[in-house]
Amino acid sequence: MTEQETTATGKDIGQVLHGPFCGRFVPGPDELDETLAELGIERTAEHPEFDMEPEEEPEEGFEVEGTEVDGQVLIMGAVHGMGRKLQLPSGTPRNFPPFAGATRLWSERTRHQVVRIRRKAPGIVCATYKNHGRTGMPWGIDIMVSPLHQHANDAQKRLGNALTRWLVNNFAEMHINYIIWMNQINDGQGFFSNEPFINFPGGSPNLVTRRHQDHVHVQIMDPNRGPKQ
Fold this sequence. Notes:
The protein has one domain. The chain contains four helices and eight strands. The protein has helices at residues 29-39, 108-120, 154-169, 207-210; strands at 62-69, 72-80, 125-127, 140-144, 176-181, 184-186, 191-193, 215-220. β1 and β2 (72-80) form a beta hairpin. The radius of gyration is 17 Å and the shape is globular. The two termini are 19 Å apart.
């Protein structure tokens, strides 16, 4: 599946209805800044969950991404932390599909990042579904840390925290648009509360899933659209 800019009906991707599982709407960058300012929400350097854990040793190992031009390899980026694999705790889903309607119909660029995620945490289940995420296009990834609608336990939360730290550390290299975990969003400029955005229509009636307490959501960017998507 290739990345597209419009739906089959010709509508701009920003007009597509959002999927029924994550249960949240993330405004576009301009609207987001206005919303945060109106609500008095400031971005923070850390996810609040991270303050509850001891500092980890530095991640090891790099995966270099490059392209060949006229016989010379140009380095495009390097994903770090690939040397340390994350272990899945008991109860973390290992079988696909993790929920009704789940698919693996990602764009090729997004699929490339799914492969990286599954190398970082071997066996972890990643899924998407129709009209997923801000854009409604095939760039959203749900990383299932605990079974759908079940709040992550302490061990699963540590896994989600580790995945989120790693994703934030590789934000640009993995072409990430935003990340949501434990009711906090990171759009590349820091974390802020997801709570104001959980009650928009089209989402799951389950608050655990709306608050992303059972999965980490990652949205990959379409490089042809730039950061405002």
